[in-house]
Amino acid sequence: MSTRPLAWPHGVPALLLGLFAAFSAGCNQEDSADASTAKKPSDGKGRVAVVVSTLNNPWFVVLAETAKARAEELGHEAVIFDSQNDPAMEASHFDNLLAAGYDAVLLNATDADGSVAAVRKAKERGVPVFCIDREINADDAAVAQILSDNYAGCVELGQYFVETVGEEGKYVELLGLSGDNNTGNRSDGFHNVVDRFPGLEMVAQQTANFDRSKALEVTESILQSNPDIDAIFCGNDAMAMGAFQAVNTAGLADQIKVFGFDGAADVIDSIRAGKIVATAMQFPKTMARQAAEFADEWIKGRRDFVQKTPVAVELVTRDNIEDYAAYGSKE
Prior knowledge:
This protein is α/β, with parallel strands linked by helices. It folds into two domains: about 130 residues, 3-Layer(aba) Sandwich (Rossmann fold), CATH 3.40.50.2300; about 130 residues, Response regulator (Rossmann fold, 3-Layer(aba) Sandwich). Helix content is about 45%, strand content about 20%. The strands form four sheets. A six-stranded parallel β-sheet has the order 2-1-3-4-5-11, with helices on both faces.
């Protein structure tokens, strides 16, 4: 019996290889299509991750819970992830939520530069990121950024500062997180006004990381060497509450005027009680709802988003306090 290999007619092997390649390509395309549509629910409902910088501040709790609630009202599943002001933890959250197949991310970033890599990773995986309140330093990573107009808000707050403190005096500034653009924008807006008055002397400028306990500690230390100051400008309301606590304990509440920024519940109550002088309301509920609605629109097919959506900030003082409630205007 012959053991010679089977001789194919000329051209047949090439034909069969071509057919096999076409069949394989078709299978691969089908697999790829399945993978790309797995994240796009056919019923327009999806899973939304709310990644917030910290839940150790009531203001951010309101931001996160409002975003989650609005996403759920729109029919989506929503879960909150707490980054604890740690960019490494935030990056880990992104790895986990991308592996879990979330359809959109609402991000309150930990760091303007440090958060960009995680947002780009999500973009590469086809998962849109919508930034809330805290900006990232990239215009081609997040789909949209909904941001308070911090600079303009602090220009107005700076004007009120001069009106109430006067054109001469000594003051202290407490700064927020160094990696957050809000810190610089608020400080720059404030100094755009105050620095025009040479009689106003800043005797100390220190970081308190947007944290109430840290602000208490820092203010206590400053007051030991500067008990004769006239005012303290704080980059957020948590720091304002810590600063006021230190001032009050030192028996200087009638002498030192404290200013905040946020519109948090405790500061609104404090202004109403005649303690803290003023704050700036930056409407976290408005920003959170807008971000959730943008995510909903993306899941349903919209792609034409403006990169940055500014949200106006309003000055809150003892004169207009009755127009405001915690985290917004009275309804």
